[in-house]
Design a protein that fits this description.
The complex is a heterodimer of chains A (about 200) and B (about 70). Chain A is mostly helical. Chain A has 6 helices and no strands. Classes of the chains: A mainly alpha (about 200), B mainly alpha (about 70). The interface between A and B is large, with 52 and 42 residues.
Chain lengths: ~200, ~70
């Protein structure tokens, strides 16, 4: 039962996961647009860097926005943020693989929403280690999906190429993206902007 | 185990299976090719889209602030 002594994150985690109130929708859209603006740059850099085969910077900078989106806006935030950017990415042709981002984004953000929710239902806050751990687990999963769906089925890459892209994206997301995401989350929490 | 952990697994797997299935259909040529409505080499499109997104983000931020109150100091 929600009480005044709970933190905002804890209270939100104990509420409905798929909320449709104005704050949730506007806040989710705000993060979705910010994420898309970020991806306008990173996806093009990825295209130059990998020849359109991978999205290491996309994976990395996604961790800046996604955890905060799912912590404050739950599954609603996950669905809006993960599907808004692919629309913009396809329309503006940021990356040759932009059409696959719908399911790649969702396959990380939906599990992330449930994992953070489960954690914050039992804890008033989240520290650095579990925060990065959840990112590591979910980004590992999306890398598996990307390896199977894109690299094996569509692009038919060799095993060596798949392994390099897999670990390149995953390690960058965890080692660089995780701490960035945590710093952003702490800043947002401290500011109280989504409370 | 919390049902949220189960939903995390189920949600991720369901989305992944649908996604990989659609990618397979796309690779087989069964899906329409809608990629690239704009010219990828057109730098102006990229710049305009980026600026528009930043303006929308700022507008949403101020709209949000006006409904949610000011941040704590």
């Amino acid at each position: 039962m929600a009480t005044a002594a709970m933190t905002v994150e804890e209270r939100l985690a104990r509420g409905p996961i798929l909320r449709g109130d104005t704050r949730t929708l506007v806040g989710s859209l705000l993060l979705a647009v910010a994420f898309s603006a970020n991806m306008q740059i990173t996806e093009r850099l990825d295209q130059i860097w990998t020849g359109g085969l991978g999205v290491p910077l996309g994976h990395t900078f996604a961790q800046l926005w996604w955890p905060t989106a799912v912590i404050y806006f739950g599954l609603t935030g996950a669905l809006i943020v993960s599907n808004f950017n692919p629309i913009i990415a396809v329309l503006s042709a940021t990356h040759p693989l932009a059409w696959s981002f719908f399911f790649l984004n969702m396959s990380e953000m939906i599990p992330l929403a449930f994992l953070f929710r489960a954690h914050l239902q039992r804890n008033p806050d989240i520290s650095f280690v579990p925060f990065v751990f959840y990112i590591a687990v979910c980004d590992l999963f999306v890398n598996v999906v990307q390896a199977l769906g894109l690299y094996v089925v569509v692009l038919k890459l060799g095993f060596g190429q798949i392994v390099v892209l897999f670990f390149w994206q995953w390690l960058m997301a965890v080692i660089i993206g995780g701490p960035m995401g945590y710093a952003f989350y702490r800043a947002v929490r401290r500011a109280g902007v989504f409370q | 185990m919390s049902k949220d952990y189960i939903w995390a697994i189920v949600g991720g797997v369901v989305v992944a299976v649908i996604g990989i299935g659609l990618l397979y259909l796309g690779a087989s040529g069964a899906m329409p090719k809608a990629f690239g409505l704009f010219d990828m080499s057109n730098l102006g499109v990229r710049a305009v889209v980026t600026v528009i997104l930043i303006v929308i983000a700022l507008a949403l931020f101020f709209a949000y602030r006006s409904t949610a109150g000011k941040p704590k100091t």
